[in-house]
Amino acid sequence: YKRQLVEDMGTGTATTANALATAISYTDATANAGKLAITINQHSYSAAMVEDLTTVQSSYDLFSTFSERMAAALALKVDDYLEDLVNTALDDSGSIDGKTIDGGGTAAAIDQVGLQNIISAVIAEDANLSNWTILCNSSGYASLFAVDEFIQGYSVGNQQGGMAPPVVNGSVGMLGGMNVVYSNNVQTSFTNGSSSVDIAGYVLHNSCLHYAYSIRPRVQTQYDIDHLATKLVADVAYGGAVKGSTTAGEVTAFAII
After folding, report:
1. Which of 143, 125, 155 lies closest to 182 in space, CA to CA?
2. Separation of alpha carbons 219 and 204, rounded Å
3. pTM for this one?
4. 57: burial class by Cβ within 10 Å (0-12, 13-18, 19+)?
5. 210, β-bridge pairs
6. Closest CA to 241 of 12, 26, 41
7. Three-state SS at 124
8. Where are the beta strands (DSSP E) in 119-184?
9. Distance between CA atoms of residues 181 and 201, nearest Å
10. Bridge pairing between strands 100-101 and 253-256
11. 74: Cβ–Cβ under 8 A, 6 or more apart, which residues?
12. What would the pLDDT profile of 136-155 be if each residue is shown by its tens digit?
């Protein structure tokens, strides 16, 4: 697990540097603080069958190629599942119900005013901005390039967002000290107040999203003599959970509207 928001564990007072006003009190209430149950209930796979004739005629490693493509398919499946956990948590009746940030003047986009709104909201939860990530959908990410300040040399370039002149590659890697990433799996709306609201993406604390495997991504092969071909299957068994609530100091995600 990554760093989590500081939880209120209670405090005591000492009268001097080495003398306590009262005996230290220990309770069982803090024993389970920060625990999060993850149910592993997802099993995804991608499969292919490569005929011997195709293998003989090919001048490159088909097995390696198929393995890479199947791994990419699984990654997209897991990415979609984890994104849905965040969207559901922000939905009506979710654990972080209705926590939103105005992305600026245009709905479901982010401009300079929107970035100020983002910083203002997250700094109230955790002042270390490097603990937050801006996760955009495709339209939200594209909106960043409509603001001149975002596309200058200091904000466009290497993924680390370094201040040194970067190799310009069209990627906004960091804004306001927060990493910026995007995914086509990020939904374009969520339910807020019983109505659908367009979003540009999310702002996530690094303690928000957790996942675990019971079967790590793997590729298995078996020869099928009936078809004179080799079967390939890539699979993974996993689960995830979102930690956070609407209580001040425990908000780990916001939808950017």
Report:
1. 143
2. 32
3. 0.78
4. exposed
5. 241
6. 41
7. coil
8. 132-136, 174-175, 178-182
9. 10
10. parallel
11. 44, 45, 46, 217, 234, 235, 236
12. 999 999 998 887 766 664 44
